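Colleagues,

For the teaching module next term, I've prepared a clean inverse folding example: a structure given as C-alpha cells, and then the sequence designed for it. I'd like students to try predicting residues themselves before seeing the answer, so please don't circulate the second half yet.
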C-alpha cells in the first residue's frame, strides 16, 4: 500500500506581511492512508503533536478534509466526528487534537495564518472556538482554492504571502457563509432571500411594502427580517435603501436629471429626505457627488 503523501511549507514573515493584515504561517496537504501513524513526521516543533497529548498553537489553522473521516476535540468542545467535506477551524492558544479514523485515513488540506484581520473577525464573533467544525457544501470550490494555494507555493509567485492570504480570506468567507446558512436552519432560506432581492431590484423606483413582500414569499415578516439580516448583514429596509442610494449615485453621475428627478427615479418621494439620507450614506450631498463624478470622467 502506498504510504503517506505530503507537501507543505512553513513561512518567514516580513513587516510588509504583517501590515497586510493577514499572513500565512504554514500551508500544505497530506494523504493519510488507513492504519498509518498520524500526524506524519517532519513538522517543526510546536506544530507536531500526538493524540495522547494534543497541542496548543499560536496561530489560526483551517483544515479541510476532502476524503475519509476522523475526530476532533478541544478544550472548548467535546470529541466529535469529522466527516469528508468538513473544515476544522483551530484557534490560537486553545488546546486541541484531531486525527483520522484508522479504518479510513483521510486527505487533509490546511493553511495556518495570523494577523490583525483574523483576530478582528474572531473578536467580532464571525468565528468562534465553540463552533470549530464547519460544513460548507462547497467542496469543489474549497478543493480548488487549496489546490491554488499549493500551486502558488510551488511556483513561488511574487508577493506570495499576499496571494496566499487572499485565497485564505476567500476560504474564510465561504466558512462564514456556511455558518449563516446553518443558523437559518431552513432549506428554502436562500431561495426566499434571492427572490426578495430580485423583487427589490425590480421595484427600486416604486413603493415597496416589505411586509407585503414577506407575505408574497409565504413567510412571516419576523422570519423574513431575521433571515434576511443573517443572509446579507442588513435588514430588508436598509438593503432597499442601499439599492436606492446606489441607483441615485448612478443617475447623478450619468445623467443630467435634476436632484428632484433623481430622487423620484431612485424611489424617494421626498427630495429633502433623499438629500439628507444621501449625505448620511455617502458623506456628500447629491450635488457634490455629481461634481466629483464629472471631474473623474
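(Answer key — instructors only)
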Amino acid at each position: 500500500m502506498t504510504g503517506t503523501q505530503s507537501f507543505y511549507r512553513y513561512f518567514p514573515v516580513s513587516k510588509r506581511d504583517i501590515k497586510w493584515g493577514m499572513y500565512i504561517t504554514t500551508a500544505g496537504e497530506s494523504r493519510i492512508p488507513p492504519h498509518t501513524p498520524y500526524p506524519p513526521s517532519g513538522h517543526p516543533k510546536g506544530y507536531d503533536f500526538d493524540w495522547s497529548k494534543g497541542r496548543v498553537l499560536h496561530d489560526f489553522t483551517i483544515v479541510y478534509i476532502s476524503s475519509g473521516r476522523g475526530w476532533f476535540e478541544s478544550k472548548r468542545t467535546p470529541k466529535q466526528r469529522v466527516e469528508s467535506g468538513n473544515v476544522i477551524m483551530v484557534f490560537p492558544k486553545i488546546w486541541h487534537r484531531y486525527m483520522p479514523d484508522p479504518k479510513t485515513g483521510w486527505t487533509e488540506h490546511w493553511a495556518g495564518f495570523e494577523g490583525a484581520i483574523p483576530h478582528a473577525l474572531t473578536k467580532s464573533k464571525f468565528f468562534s472556538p465553540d463552533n470549530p467544525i464547519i460544513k460548507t457544501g462547497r467542496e469543489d470550490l474549497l478543493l480548488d482554492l487549496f489546490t491554488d494555494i499549493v500551486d502558488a507555493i510551488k511556483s513561488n509567485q511574487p508577493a506570495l504571502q499576499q496571494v496566499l492570504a487572499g485565497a485564505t480570506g476567500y476560504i474564510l468567507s465561504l466558512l462564514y457563509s456556511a455558518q449563516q446558512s446553518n443558523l437559518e436552519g431552513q432549506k428554502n432560506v436562500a431561495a426566499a432571500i434571492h427572490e426578495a432581492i430580485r423583487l427589490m431590484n425590480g421595484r427600486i423606483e416604486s413603493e415597496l411594502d416589505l411586509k407585503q413582500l414577506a407575505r408574497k414569499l409565504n413567510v412571516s415578516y419576523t422570519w423574513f427580517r431575521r433571515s434576511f439580516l443573517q443572509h446579507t448583514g442588513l435588514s430588508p429596509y436598509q438593503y432597499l435603501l442601499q439599492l436606492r442610494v446606489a441607483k441615485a449615485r448612478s443617475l447623478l453621475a450619468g445623467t443630467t436629471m435634476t436632484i428632484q428627478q433623481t430622487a423620484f427615479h431612485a424611489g424617494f418621494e421626498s427630495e429633502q429626505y433623499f438629500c439628507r439620507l444621501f449625505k448620511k450614506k455617502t458623506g456628500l450631498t447629491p450635488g457634490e457627488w455629481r461634481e466629483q463624478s464629472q471631474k473623474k470622467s
